[in-house]
Amino acid sequence: MDYSSAVFYFFSFILLFSAIKVITSRNPILSALFLVLSFFSAAGLWLLLQAEFLAIALVLVYVGAVMVLFLFVIMMIDINVEVMKKGFWNYFPAIGFVSIIMLTEIILVLNKPFFKTPALFKAPIKSNTDAIGEVLYSEYILPFEIAAIILLVAIIAAIALTLRGKKMHKGIDPAIQISVKKSDRLKMVEMGINKFKTKKRVKRN
Predict the structure, then answer these.
(1) Phi then psi dihedrals of residue 126, to 5 deg
(2) Which of 139, 135, 117, 115 is nearest to 126 (CA)?
(3) How large is the average pLDDT for residues 52-65?
(4) Could you tell me the domains of the chain?
């Protein structure tokens, strides 16, 4: 067994183990964390297949954004696991049918003819990320810029919607803060401590 095969089996074992723990774990937070582990394992498999862009996109988008959102939602809402598992056995026939179909597809893919190298196969000259970037910034530059403008408008609209209505927080105007003088920040007050002490002594006597 060579090095690449050992790494492939290592990531595959972690991916299968974490996928099983996602659906069998009773704690939803642990299920989400095992799903993060499965994403990392899938990214490692994609790196072995020389799909660097897909591996980095999987880690940045799903692990860095989507799963963080899932964890926030799971921790903020009260999930009753027992209520969710009440109707599990009602869906078991459909789950078994889909599982049999997926197992059949896996057996067909793992068959020997699918792993034979085609006669016209050529090794890639440039990396996957380089090829995607070259196509994205040449042939598809206009759709890419339009998508960037749409996302920018969506971000500005989301910020504007959150700032509408009555402000419930105290805001600071930078212009007023800069124009403050030293006399406005510091004020000396005479407390008259000696007079207060003498009055107490007189009362005691």
Answers:
(1) -115, 165
(2) 135
(3) 83
(4) 1-85 (1.20.120.1200), 119-162 (no CATH)
Residue pair 81/66 in contact (Cβ under 8 Å)? The answer is: no
A 10 A CB-CB count for 36 gives 20
* Relative orientation angle of helices 67-76 and 28-48, to the nearest 10 degrees: 170
Q: What is the DSSP letter of 140?
A: T
Q: Are residues 55 and 134 in contact, defined by beta-carbon separation less than 8 angstroms?
A: no
- pLDDT attached to residue 36: 86
Say whether pTM exceeds 0.85.
Answer: no
In contact, 21 and 31? CB cutoff 8 Å: yes
Question: How is residue 11 written in tokens?
Answer: 């990531």
Give the percent of the chain with pLDDT over 90.
5
